[in-house]
Specification:
Blueprint (H helix, E strand, L loop, with lengths): L4 H18 L1 H6 L4 H9 L6 H8 L3 H13 L3 E5 L7 E5 L1 H22 L4 H15 L4
Antiparallel strand pairs: 1-2
Helix pairs in contact: 3-5, 4-5
Amino acid sequence: MTVDGAQLWTLNQRLLSVVMDACTRELADLGLETKEFLVLAEVEGSPYPAEIATALLLPRASVTVYVRNLAAKGFIRREIDDVDLRRHRLVLTDDGTRARDRALAALAAEYDRRLARITPRDRTELRRILTEMLAPPT
C-alpha cells in the first residue's frame, strides 16, 4: 500500500487539530483563544507581526487583531526596535510567558496522552522521522 504525502499531511493536520481542540478549555481558562495562543507562542521566535503572519500562515490583518487582543490582556507589549526605530517589536510580559508556558504544558500533556498509544520504540522512531523531515535539504 502506497501512502502519499497528502495523506500523511492530512493525518498530521488532523492530529494537531484534535490536540488543540482537546485543550480549548485550558486555553480559555488562561484567557486565550486558540489563534491568540498560536501568536503568543510565536512571539519570542518571531517578534514582528509580519513575521508571525508568515510563520503561522495567517493574514497580517488577523495577526494585528490577535496582537491587539494579547496586548489588551497584558500578555505582550510593543517596544521600539533598537535596530530600526521605525519598527515595533513584540515582547512577552511575565503574564504572557506564564500563560504561554501553561498552555504549552496542556498541549504537551494532551499530545503525551496520544503518544502513550504507541510503543516507546515507535515514539523514538517518530522523533527521528520528524527531526529528519525538519532538517534542511542537502
